């Protein structure tokens, strides 16, 4: 596994080490309120990669400070995603909820220092008092409560005496600050909800801007790497740490560093919107192969190697930008081309009868497993009198640039023989339902003494009919309509899934297991679905096409 290449964060760490830092400890701190998406993959690779690159460690810590939206299902999915991407976290999994007692003590200390107060303003009133980007805010009428009154009210908040929204604890900083985040931000609110780990022990919960810097300080994080939207929150991060580091005896003073998040073109990664797709049944779960979640990409057939390569290629920047999804697909093709075994599957079958091939005879031909890895050798595929080809590989009338099958013309069958179309059979509606062809017995493919040197321009994939495996193939389009200016959910592509139920596959594919990946010759890359497949009856998800629009 490659480590993170040089970037501005690595340069900061290198300088810190040169100036005497003896360790590097990073963290990946997801909130367990949904499944991770492709944007999180960049953060995972960066945080774990920086630790690996500098002989350090990386913590996995769940920011579970909002019990109304969090669930153990999300915790398990996130751990699975991090492991699947190839990373191992430092020690036991950590949780913000591990530190709830410490957070409470920190808040009490701020009250004792006169730097926090209990406020009774409603959310609407608080917005009015906050001011604007051009006008300073106004002090809350409760800002000058005595320390004793604040301590009493905060304890009563903890004891559950007040309903949700009745009171909050705010940091006492500066209502005239040009940074809106420093205008006496809320650091604790009342939430009467069952917590997935602490149950009903607490009914007050810290805000992220308060909990996050304290978590880092408690764990001794050296470099707290987060996305660019937290740049304006860095002053409150520093304020919390600086005011509490000595009184709480934190082991290390962490440093927050921001980088540009990953944005894929025509891809929506809002957890709220993705959850709505799941809840409304537009997709069949967070791991639906159309979803931009890591579990969805995994089920579709993406590999951890391809995603890590993608994150490495796009680099680490200080300003936001949008990356074309073709870059991710390019990385995937590079990996699958080298590692996926080949197979022949006909998605839209057209029957061919080879009239001069002996009836009832089946011969077994050699097919290469992967031309990029000749050491893997070959496997056997059956060939007989009746075969299937793709409907689109035949045209009754075609110009000179059409090198596939047409009446009176020859093509080669991959790994097999040259055939010529002699007769076209149609149904009562004029639809082509069968072709009568003849084959050249001396035109056999291969590398041995029996191989034919005769050349024709077109080569088709095919499947022998009597041994063909009936399979279902699920084809995907973009989940969100490219370039659509309508707001969610009107920008959702309701036709993003097409299920093909009449596909014909090599019989060898009956042994394919969930997660196995193949290149279907001339058709693209496909993966065995882990939900709808059963033993001997694989269902294939289309992973990515063979065509590549990005040049790396």
Explain what the structure shows.
The chain is α/β, with parallel strands linked by helices. Among the domains are: 8-263, Rossmann fold; 342-458, Beta Barrel (Ribosomal Protein L25, Chain P), CATH 2.40.240.10. The chain contains 12 helices and 27 strands. The protein has helices spanning 8-18, 38-53, 72-84, 100-112, 123-130, 147-158, 208-219, 234-244, 271-279, 294-300, 304-314, 325-339, and strands spanning 25-28, 57-62, 94-95, 116-119, 168-171, 186-190, 204-206, 223-227, 255-259, 263-264, 322-323, 342-343, 345-346, 349-354, 362-368, 378-384, 386-390, 410-413, 418-426, 432-439, 459-460, 463-464, 469-476, 497-505, 517-520, 524-528, 539-544. A 7-stranded mixed sheet has the order 12-25-26-27-23-24-13. A 7-stranded mixed sheet has the order 21-18-19-20-14-17-22, with no helix packed on it. Strand 25 (517-520) and strand 26 form a beta hairpin. The longest helix has 16 residues, at 38-53.
Task: Output the radius of gyration.
Answer: 31 Å
Largest sheet report = 7 strands, mixed
Strand order of the largest sheet: 12-25-26-27-23-24-13
Number of DSSP helical runs: 12
CATH C-level class of the domain at 8-263 is: Alpha Beta
Low-confidence stretches: none
| Portion in helices | 25-40%
Q: Could you give the distance between the termini?
A: 20 Å
What's the CATH H-level superfamily name of the domain at 8-263? HUPs
Strand content: 15-25%
Structural class, from helix and strand content? alpha/beta
CATH-derived topology of the domain at 8-263: Rossmann fold
CATH architecture of the domain at 8-263: 3-Layer(aba) Sandwich
The coarse overall form would be elongated
In total, the number of strands is 27
Average pLDDT, rounded to a whole number, is 94
């Amino acid at each position: 596994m490659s480590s993170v290449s040089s970037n501005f964060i690595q340069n900061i760490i290198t300088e810190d080490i040169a100036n005497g830092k003896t360790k590097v400890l990073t963290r990946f701190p997801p909130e367990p309120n949904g499944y991770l998406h492709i944007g999180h993959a960049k953060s995972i690779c960066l945080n774990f990669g920086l630790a690996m690159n500098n002989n350090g460690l990386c913590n996995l810590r769940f920011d579970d400070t909002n019990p109304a939206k969090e669930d153990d299902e999300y915790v398990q999915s996130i751990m699975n995603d991090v492991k699947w991407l190839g990373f191992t976290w430092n020690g036991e999994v950590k949780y913000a909820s591990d530190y709830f007692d410490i957070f409470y003590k920190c808040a009490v200390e701020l009250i004792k220092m006169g730097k926090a107060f209990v406020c009774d303003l409603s959310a609407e009133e608080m917005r009015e008092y906050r001011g604007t980007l051009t006008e300073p805010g106004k002090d809350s009428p409760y800002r000058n409560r005595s320390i004793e009154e604040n301590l009493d009210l905060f304890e009563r908040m903890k004891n559950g005496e007040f309903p949700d929204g009745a009171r909050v604890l705010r940091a006492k900083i500066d209502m005239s600050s040009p940074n809106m985040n420093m205008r006496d931000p809320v650091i604790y609110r009342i939430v009467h909800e069952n917590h997935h780990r602490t149950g009903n022990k607490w009914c007050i919960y810290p805000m992220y801007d308060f909990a996050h810097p304290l978590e880092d300080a408690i764990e001794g994080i050296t470099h707290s790497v987060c996305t660019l939207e937290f740049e304006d929150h860095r002053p409150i991060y520093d304020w919390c740490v600086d005011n509490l580091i000595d009184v709480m005896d934190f082991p290390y003073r962490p440093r927050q560093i921001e980088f540009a998040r990953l944005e894929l073109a025509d891809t929506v990664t809002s957890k709220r919107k993705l959850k709505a797709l799941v809840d409304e049944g537009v997709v069949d779960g967070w791991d639906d192969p159309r979803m931009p979640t890591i579990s969805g990409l995994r089920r579709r057939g993406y590999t951890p190697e391809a995603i890590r390569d993608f994150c490495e290629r796009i680099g680490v920047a200080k300003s936001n930008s949008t990356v074309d999804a073709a870059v991710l697909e390019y990385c995937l093709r590079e990996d699958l081309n080298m590692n996926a075994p080949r197979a022949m599957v006909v998605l839209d079958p057209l029957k061919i009868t080879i009239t001069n091939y002996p009836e009832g005879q089946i011969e077994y031909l050699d097919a290469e497993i992967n031309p990029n890895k000749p050491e893997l050798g070959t496997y056997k595929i059956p060939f007989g009198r009746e075969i299937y080809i793709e409907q689109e590989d035949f045209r009754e009338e075609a110009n000179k640039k059409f090198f596939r099958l047409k009446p009176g013309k020859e093509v080669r069958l991959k790994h097999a023989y040259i055939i010529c179309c002699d007769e076209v059979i149609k149904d009562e509606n004029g639809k082509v339902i069968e072709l009568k062809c003849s084959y050249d017995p001396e035109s056999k493919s291969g590398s041995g003494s029996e191989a034919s040197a005769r050349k024709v321009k077109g080569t088709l994939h095919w499947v022998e009919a009597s041994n063909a495996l009936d399979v279902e193939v699920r084809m995907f389009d973009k989940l969100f309509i490219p370039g659509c200016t309508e707001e969610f959910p009107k920008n959702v592509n309701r036709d993003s899934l097409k299920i093909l139920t009449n596909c014909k596959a090599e019989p060898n594919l009956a042994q394919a297991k969930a997660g196995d990946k193949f290149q279907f010759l001339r058709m693209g890359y496909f993966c065995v679905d882990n939900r709808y497949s059963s033993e001997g009856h694989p269902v294939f998800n289309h992973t990515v096409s063979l065509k590549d629009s990005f040049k790396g």
